[in-house]
Amino acid sequence: MENSKQNLCNEIVRRSGVNPRKCMKCGKCSGTCPAYDEMEYHPHQFVYMVETGDIEPLLNSKSIYRCLTCFACVDRCPRGVEPAKLVEAVRLAVVREQGKNHLKADDIPELLDEELPQQAIVSALRKYSK
Amino acid sequence: MKVSYFPGCTLKTKAKDLDNYARKCAEVLGVTLEEIPAWQCCGGVFTTSRDEIATKLSSVRALNDAKQKGQPLVSVCSACHNVIKQTNAAMQNDEEFAFKVNNYISPDEYHGETKVYHYLELLRDVIGFDKLKEKVVKPLTGRKIAAYYGCLLLRPGKVMAMDDVENPTIMEDLIRALGAEPVVYAYRNECCGGYIALESKELAKEKSQKVTSNAQEKGAEAIVTACPLCRYNLIKNGTEVPVVYFTELLAEALGIKE
User: Fold this and answer.
1) Above 0.85 for ipTM, yes or no?
2) Rounded to two decimals, what is the model's pTM?
3) Out of B9, B10, B195, whose CB is closest to A124?
């Protein structure tokens, strides 16, 4: 693997605090993930692909914006791998790049309706933008 | 008794019933919620990465303000509570993270000293459900109420430590204390879709309808929640039963609902 990719991969692991090698590949994280059907790569695949350094497809996949931060995979993993933290670290590797915000403030007005709580907007901006 | 109170952005706007009744009910129960001056939005979701500093400063400032006053910090919105409690745990357990954050908190240093309560924990652990029961003037006898926990009140379990993550009882115990009958159903701690409502309305719809239809199948006449976004998603995506804040139910039983 080329050096810069390896560095990014190490950085993702470091900032997530996750040890992907603890995974025993039972698939429970993906089985319990509420966004499973809308994901191209599922939580267990994030763990495996980061472990093997195959992160390019993850960086380019919409799957990183489908995680709901519900922490179901974090609590239900029998090995304490905490896949959601890895998904987040991969997403940050993308949105921290200049011009890579997934949601822009200008996009917000047309997404609003009368009842939508502020909480939804600040949460989405925190997850999708830097 | 006086506690520090973090209302959060939504409680000042779309979720006023969650805020107003929380304050009024606390007074009836002998607790004053003292709003933290100049609190800033918690950001809605906790950013789990260890190198995210700026996104956690508002929580730490609120926690530090409570520490200076020697008071526990209480919030009633599930999301605020989740962000503040996870931030507090990071300040306790991650020295490198705490060092970086404390550069912005100067001249004080904060290391997770403040006790953090969700309002439900205040009712259970500080006031006590038995004491609460004595204050009920209009018991909700015969009403079948389903508690919706969602994700943020309970998870991650080892940090939030509010209740059993897969078989919680705190809201059912509250419902019982108010004289109503709790309805237990499978989807009470599954996600409503949260902020995905902005990104994929279909996914939010699918997730929310599973919750409401499951609660209805089990005979619920109403669903209670502590989260404005859960309430929005459940109502927006079609429910045959009302979805209300638990503080509204509390106010009704205490005889102060307007």
Assistant:
1) yes
2) 0.97
3) B195
